[in-house]
Amino acid sequence: MKRVYFLLSGILMFSFLSQAQEEDPISDEELKKYALVMDFADVEKKKLQDSYNELIQSHELMDGGKRFVEIKEAKGDEAKMEELAITEEELAAYEEIEAKNEENIATFKEAYTAKIKDKEVLGAGIYNSVRKALKSDEELKTRYEAIITEIQEERTALAEEIESETQEVEGGN
Asked: Of 67, 87, 94, 101, which sees the most CB atoms within 10 A?
């Protein structure tokens, strides 16, 4: 019985290793698709953070963000909220800001997930393969870093070009 178990274990291990070796390496095209989605996510996360900060700092009851931080730290501690004299209006404003931020995050997650699942953009299979491989494949990490850097540089150059053209148009009026 032990021999049969050992033999079956060996066959299964050989099968698994053979299958792993037969997997296609990740192409530059797949890596670029992944990098484009990750760059999108990074840009959108920055926009989310900027939007959240703007919501906080621009609200008249949040005192440029100071009051927001106080409310956040005191939330759930009635004694602390009373000590800080947090009003119902301030608490409602705080909750409104948090709700809007959660809505923005949900919208981002929906768009991000859609990009991952869309086979025209990336595809869940490629996403999972690349993500997993990046954890252990140093050569792939190096290729990815070169591609993501190129994408970021192109995006930055395009933004600068648009900014320059915008200034020219505004200056001409």
From this structure: 94
